[in-house]
Amino acid sequence: MLDVFALSGRKSKYDTTRLMHQWPRRLIVAAVLLTAIVLLADAAVSIASGLYLNLGSGVWLALARDTYEGVFYRPLWNGTEYGGTRYFPVLFLAIAGLMRTGVPVVAAGVTVSMLGLGAMVVAVRRLLTQLAVPQPLAMLGAALATAPYFVHQTAFAVRCEPIAAAFAISGLAVLTPIEERPDSVRREIAAAILFVCAFLTKMTCAYGPAAATLALFYAGRRMAAARLAAMTAACGALAVIAINVASGGRAIESFRACALAGSSLSTLLSPVAITRPLQLIAPSHLLSVVFVLAAVALALAARTRLMLPAFYLLAAAAVTGVIFTSPGTIVTSHILDAYVAAIVLITIVTASQAGRVHVLGRTALVVLAVWAAGQNVVLIAKGIQQRIVETRIEAGRQLVAALDDCGGSIVSESPLIPVLAGQRPVVLDPFAFRVVAMNRPDIGDDLAARVRSKEFKCVLLEQDPAIPGGHAWYSNVNLTESVRDAILDSYRYDRTIAGERFYRPLQ
To answer: Which pLDDT tens digit goes with each residue over 69-101?
Structure first.
């Protein structure tokens, strides 16, 4: 096509070539802004309604409240309350610290969890820029790491995954680019400290030092790999010892009692570690596409010797597979580590390619960001249409009123309920309680005996133990069979409020 401005000797107001090159950048900026706006809108609706606060949230908040009141890790059993948890302390220590400034426990929990999400965004962007990813693409990768609904829900529900990932990814960023930077003991110490912080937030974040050590070794920096592994292991061991001393020996007692979280060594080494994650991921089209793209990126990374992001994904995926062997685990929070690693790898490989492969990768990242944002928009719109904020607030009032009507002590499967009512949960963690009872049957039998004696004015359950699904839930996931049977024998169903099933003693 003829340029009439060129023919007339005048300079065109529009530089077509320049505009063509600006369009990808503008699309990326638009996608980043879209994910940020949707995150803020989702936060406004979800936090105001408490939509994603759940049983797991209650465990973290109960641990924080215990710590705030001077109890750092409960004993497994003190005659009236049941402890036991596999959770490491960084998240609930931060929540307890914020509570000391006068912030209520739920607000403190959500604040710390959201700050963890923000820290994860910063860490992902830092890692990408350290690996020479251009700024617009690094921003897109960081935005996409937080874009899906399951990442939002993890932050809104008060979980450790975002802040743990932030520590682990920051440790990787300190060391990169591994192939180009000279050995530096100072950087290795900084990375080891960050990796230990990740471990003390979520112990399965061992994928960080594993990936870094493998990448250093592969790059021929064997002494640096050995130093990093040794420093991380030594600092981690010293930190666990310090935690145990500070808890009066209760922390390690709790960790040992909940070891393997209901799995067995044979399960961890069986095909279940591969098949179960695939079964959980398959229903999510977004996750399926992301991991297919990650598999392609993994092959390209091997060809271009981008080993750190490749080892990062492989280590995170292996840890995730192990997590999913535990009964009752769900995709929403535990998939975060592998998902973020996949996005990091796809982004880095896209930046390293030229021509058509680069364009396809960049387009895929933009499409994924818009897709993830669209899913959240649908959920937000549905919540607004159903007046979820007003409904949940009213349900919360009804729940507190029903607890007052109990007129005495309660035992709740979800520790969130007594925490919301300003009480200490009798059972800290119902999943951990079942695992502890497998090793200490006397603890499980004690609660069952108290239920049979109708000591509690109300029992609150998440599932209906009288139907097959609920019957199996209390056999394989939460509490124990003996506690379930004691409830069915000694209590009658009264009503359901805000999803909580109230049971009262038989007359």
So the answer is: 999 999 999 989 999 998 999 999 999 999 999
Task: Report pTM.
Answer: 0.90
| Beta partners for residue 503, in sequence order | 459, 493
CB atoms closer than 10 angstroms to residue 42: 23
Which helix (H) or strand (E) segment holds residue 496: the answer is strand 491-497
Asked if 84 and 444 touch (Cβ cutoff 8 Å), the reply is: no
CA dist., res. 109 & res. 154, Å (int): 12
Half-sphere exposure of 10 (CA within 13 A, CB side): 6
Say if residues 308 and 178 touch (Cβ distance below 8 Å): yes
d(CA 146, CA 85): 28
Strands 500-505 and 410-412: unpaired
CA distance 408 to 51: 28
10 Å CB burial of residue 445 (0-12, 13-18, 19+) is middle
Q: Which residues contact 169 (CB under 8 A, 6 or more apart)?
A: 120, 123, 124, 126, 127, 208, 340, 344
